[in-house]
Write a structure and sequence with these properties.
single chain; Rossmann fold; 2 domains; 3-stranded parallel β-sheet; binds guanine
Length: about 280
């Protein structure tokens, strides 16, 4: 193995420590950052993610609430709850865990969250601000990836960046952030004709498809920086990413592991976004 391992867990710990320090400064001015997470239904993975988010909030000194709603919650009731949270001054960030049960319109739910409390950065006005170069909240996972690249001192200006996966949550905002940092960006999707031809050009390769092993070592340019956003379980029940780690690590210059790579960074950046929402509140008259 030749690649340097990018330790997302260590960087996330450092960021969470910095957040906790800034929380103390806010508390001295009688503000405690508050995040409310809304979880609808019984998806087991979502329950684990939400519990980890709540634990991280509490460790950083936030006020943390998790509202667990049954899977048959009506859209009217969910939207009414979000309106109520929009009005609540002790709530600085609102996060509705996705995916939602099929009878709920995800787009409508996200658009109901006040844009200045949308710490996921999924609201169309936050997506538009990101696209036009004036981001308010950057979506947590791509934001975490940018922090990892920054801490590894990866030169993005003029670099060839290839993003595999074009979701609203990761791929599209990831492409926007890399573009804003001066990279030449290629955004691949499930219809991309020759994926390997694209990935082999990448100085920086970000993979976010949810398909284990979609990228293998022979698809990677020697020395490239490889960021694996996937969190999957293999046939033995072990966590694995979208990149075949062993073959990729033999070629790449640096690579993120799964677990311990991007995952912890997503939570750290959720704390940063919520903290900044609370800090902005202080600046309002
Ligand atoms: N489900 C998977 N990832 C995310 C995320 O970053 N935010 C929300 N709200 N739901 C998710």
């Amino acid at each position: 193995m030749t690649a340097r391992i990018i330790d997302g867990k260590a960087l996330a710990t450092k960021i969470r420590h910095e957040v906790a320090q800034r929380v103390l400064a806010l508390q001295a001015q009688s503000i405690q950052p508050g995040l409310t997470v809304v979880l609808v239904g019984d998806d087991p993975a979502s329950h684990v993610y939400v519990r980890n988010k709540a634990l991280a909030c509490e460790a950083a000194g936030f006020k943390s609430d998790v509202l667990r709603l049954s899977s048959d919650t009506s859209e009217t009731d969910l939207l009414a709850l979000i309106h109520q949270l929009n009005q609540d001054d002790t709530v600085h960030g609102i996060l509705v865990q996705l995916p939602l049960p099929a009878h709920l319109d995800q787009h409508k739910v996200i658009e109901t969250i006040a844009a200045d409390k949308d710490v996921d950065g999924f609201h169309v006005s936050n997506a538009g601000l990101l696209m036009t170069g004036q981001p308010l909240f950057r979506p947590c996972t791509p934001y975490g990836v940018m922090k990892m690249l920054e801490s590894e001192q990866v030169e993005l200006r003029g670099a060839e960046a290839v993003v595999v996966g074009a979701s609203n949550i990761v791929g599209k905002p990831m492409a926007m952030l890399l573009l804003a940092a001066g990279a030449t960006v290629t955004l691949c999707n499930s219809k991309t004709r020759d994926l390997a031809a694209q990935t082999r050009r990448a100085d920086v390769l970000v993979v976010a498809t949810g398909r284990p092993g979609i990228v293998t070592g022979d698809m990677i340019k020697p020395g490239a920086v490889v960021i694996d956003v996937g969190i999957n379980r293999n046939s033995d029940g072990k966590l694995c990413g979208d990149v075949e780690f062993d073959s990729a690590a033999a070629v790449a210059g640096a690579i993120t592991p799964v677990p311990g790579g991007v995952g912890p960074m997503t939570i750290a950046m959720l704390l940063v976004n919520t903290l900044e929402a609370a800090e902005r509140r202080l600046q309002q008259p």
